[in-house]
Write a structure and sequence with these properties.
single chain, alpha/beta, Rossmann fold, six-stranded mixed beta sheet, 8 helices
Amino acid sequence: MINKLLKSFFFKQKMTLKRYSILRILQIEELIKLNIKGSVLDVGGKKTPNNISNYLETKVKYLDKFAKNEEDLIIDLEKEFNIDKIKLEQFDNVLLMNVLEHVFEFNNCIQICYALTKKGGNFIGSTPFYFRIHGSPNDYFRYTDQALEKILKKVGFKNIIIYPLTGGIFISFYSNIFLITNKIPLFNNLLLPIFTILDKIMYLFTKSYKKIMPIGYFFKATK
């Protein structure tokens, strides 16, 4: 237990030095824990140095409407798409990381993800909650765990698990001042553990503290 805590602490410190937000760090940690095997499609992603799916030990294919690689799928998640055209290519794992909040036609996006997931395959994703507006190019929504569950069930996903990626007053504050404090070398490496400890103290007063103030959600489901 102590070894896991220390490993997580040093991982967070290392990634903070790389100027990763706490939300992205926690998302990467969760993906690594899943030990994903088989084919992977990163929906809404592309091959960049800071892509979350870079930390997977398997080959990743991307889906993006601006995709330039011939191997990638070029699909606009905002528009209706002939699902039959893409059912021929399905994946063991479909990722939707920090994309859902940027898609206005979110039901259309989830339907495409469902069609691209193999029978018995995994649908894995994450979306922010207490997090600053971040256009890509637009930022439309924030989803609760209850909303995410209904959206996933509606298209047919099952075995749905949704949980908060940490939460609390202090870590939410840290998350939202990150862009400012990040300009000061090593400052965030000091702030992060302090705010984490302060929130853990707050957990002692109410068990629902983390659940009602999440900085983001992580979800898993199967087809």
